[in-house]
Amino acid sequence: MNNNQSGGFNNDTDGFSGYAGNNYTDGYDPGVNHPANNRSFGQNYGAPANSMGYDAFSTGTGKASITLSQYVRKVYLWMFIGLSITFSIGLIAVLNQSRTLEFIESNIELLFGAIIAELVLVFVLGLFIGKMNSTVSLILFFVYSALNGITIAPTLILFEASSAFFCFAVTAGLFGAMAFFGAVTKLDLSKIRYVLLFGLVALLGFTILGFFFHFPMLDLLIGVLGIVIFVGYAAWDSQKIKKQYLALQHNDEMLKRSAVNSALALYLDFINLFIQLLRLFGKRK
Length: 285
Known about the structure:
Largest sheet: 2 strands, antiparallel
Strand order of the largest sheet: 1-2
Structural class: mainly alpha
Distance between the termini: 12 Å
Helix content: 55-70%
Order of helices and strands: EEHHHHHHHH
Number of helices: 8
């Protein structure tokens, strides 16, 4: 399978897919290859108490108005809504693929505009999510999800529907299992952050290399490495939800912003894992 991607679009004839720039609100990630993957602004996984760039305790307002379980449900609800928006747009594009492809061919600049807008928006979210109103950040997250649905649609069109659904189901299973593991394990998963960072840097390098050289083994390496990395991030981001709640439970507004931030992180874990599984196991039309 030859699906080497870079810079937010696929260098093959398949159009504009990929997972560029994993700017995942971590504060260090250089990125991989799809605007959906932006993991590099705002959230500092190295901070044990507060990973959003502000003092969680200096502006405390008392006891949190929601419990930990309610907070966790809210995070996953936002993530689910974001994913629903993205894949609903992708499904509409697949069901109307002839019109979609015709529209892309005649309005290619709009697709590039969506990719750029997506990158800018996730940058803004990652950089200012700790400062902006929680309602505004949530709306921007949903707008980002819609833009991501537009940019991922051409990728979905390339694959058989049954193959895409299979990869989606596998993604849901893997993500759910690792999220559960991250939530219940007593291990401190923050210790793997440097391993994941090194893996992302390596993935970026291999992806850039794949843009110029097309080797089946390189595609396989990129796919396997990507799956391992984003499975690890799913567990780590899930574990961090409780830590963020405990750090911010005395400030309701910061807690709301943190919920959106965590939902964005988990959303990107899911999207990136799906793209890697699709490029590795997906059956092209």
